[in-house]
Design a protein that fits this description.
The complex is a heterodimer of chains A (about 140) and B (about 60).
Chain A: H1 9-19, E1 26-31, H2 34-53, E2 58-63, H3 69-75, E3 82-86, E4 90-96, H4 104-116, H5 123-130, E5 136-142
Parallel strand pairs in A: 1-2
Antiparallel strand pairs in A: 1-3, 3-4
Chain B: E1 8-14, H1 19-24, E2 32-35, E3 39-42, H2 47-62
Antiparallel strand pairs in B: 2-3
The chains are: A alpha+beta (about 140), B alpha+beta (about 60).
Chain lengths: ~140, ~60
Amino acid sequence: MHAMAFMNVQTLSEVRKQFARLRDPVTLVVFSQALEAADRCLQTERLARELAELSDRIRVEVLNPAIDRERAQAYGVDRVPAIVVEGARDYGIRFYGVPAGYEFGPLVDAIVAVSRGEAELAPATREALATLGADVDIKVFSTPT
Amino acid sequence: MAVASDRIRATAIDATEFPDLARAYRVMAVPKVVLNDRVQFEGALPEPDFVAAVLRAASVDGH
C-alpha cells in the first residue's frame, strides 16, 4: 500500500497550505477497535497518520475504547471509529466514521481552528455566540462521498 | 463554532457508517444538522441562519 493512500497530489498540496497556518500542537485522538469495525478503524488510523506526517504540530494517539475506558468516557466517545481533535484544550470536536469524503475538509478546518484557538467566523457570529446562555450540542450528519 | 464558544460541542457523523444514529435522528438527506437533539435542518445554511438556529436551540433548552 502506498504511504499516501488517501490524499492525491492536489489534496496534499492544499492540506500542506492549510497546515502552514498551524500554531499550537494538535492531537488527533483516534478511537479504534478491531473487533468492532476493523477495516474502518484501520482506515481512520491511517488517515490520521497521513495528516500527522504533513506537520510536526500534529500527533496521533490511538486508543481502544474497550481498554482505555476511562479516556473514552472522559471524551464521551461511545462508537468507533472516532477522532477527537484536541488543541491546547478539548474544544468538543468529534468525528465519527472514516473522515475521507465530505468530512475530510471539515476535519482539516477543525485541525487548523483548534491549533490557532480561533474559528474563521464573521464578527457578528462571534458576538452572537458570546451571548449563549446554554450549552449547544451540534450534530452534523453527512455521507462518505 | 465549538472553538469560538465553550458552550458548543460539535460532532460530525457519517450517516452511512452509523445507520442506527441516522435512523434515530431521521436523516433523509445530508447534510443534516441536529441541535440539542431538537432543532434540526437539512442542507447547508448561510452562517447567520446557522447561528440563529444555534441561539434558538440554546433558548429552547434554557426555558
